[in-house]
Amino acid sequence: MSSIRLFILGSLEERGEMHGHALRLLAEEEHIDSWTDFGPGSVYGAIKRLAAEGLIEEKRTEREGNYPERQVYGITDAGTAALADLRRETLETLTYRHDPVDLALARLDPNGLDAVGDVLRGRLDELRRSRDDWEAHAEQIRKYLTLTEAHVMRHQYHRLSGEIAWHEELIANLPAIIDDEKSRKGHHPS
């Protein structure tokens, strides 16, 4: 599954023919990097790949004022079919990515156990700031969102809230975790 493919193909299907710069501006306007796994700068490379695969095609070249010529792309029939498959596959597939912090916690440095609490509290503070920033941003743009977009935006809020709850639970159990780690210091099972 590829979020950027879904974005470009979906945007061309919904809005009609566009050039790369317009797609990039749309990605910036929608703050795509705040709620997907790609940033606006990735659009140009993805356009080339989609065109090479025959999912989009150059329709014309246009020039506005003194700006350079821009290739305007449209979605092909193959692109429309691929978009339908991509939408279905993306909606049906649960995506769970492991967080490297779990491995770092499972492999704590026995000599650095006393610093773990400060590090985790720093992570928790950053998560809370991120959620607060998200809430402020969501409030600013709420009037511009469709009902579906508002629910999509809430997904990030709930993900951050889940991370906050997990960090709070971890920090509350940290004394027992550290005691357990210290009791194992130097003990390596065969």
Largest sheet: 3 strands, antiparallel
Identify the strand order in the major beta sheet: 1-3-2
Contiguous uncertain segments of 5+ residues: none
> Mean pLDDT, as a whole number?
90
The ordered string of helix (H) and strand (E) elements is HEHHHEEHHHHH
CATH superfamily of the largest domain: Winged helix-like DNA-binding domain superfamily/Winged helix DNA-binding domain
Name the structural class.
mainly alpha
How does the overall form come out from the CA principal axes? elongated
Walk me through the structure.
- This protein is mainly alpha-helical.
- It has 2 domains: about 90 residues, Arc Repressor Mutant, subunit A (Orthogonal Bundle), CATH 1.10.10; about 80 residues.
- It has 9 helices and 3 strands; from the N terminus they run αβαααββααααα.
- A 3-stranded antiparallel beta sheet has the order 1-3-2.
- Strand 2 and strand 3 form a beta hairpin.
- Helix 7 runs antiparallel to helix 8.
- The model has no long low-confidence stretch (mean pLDDT about 90).
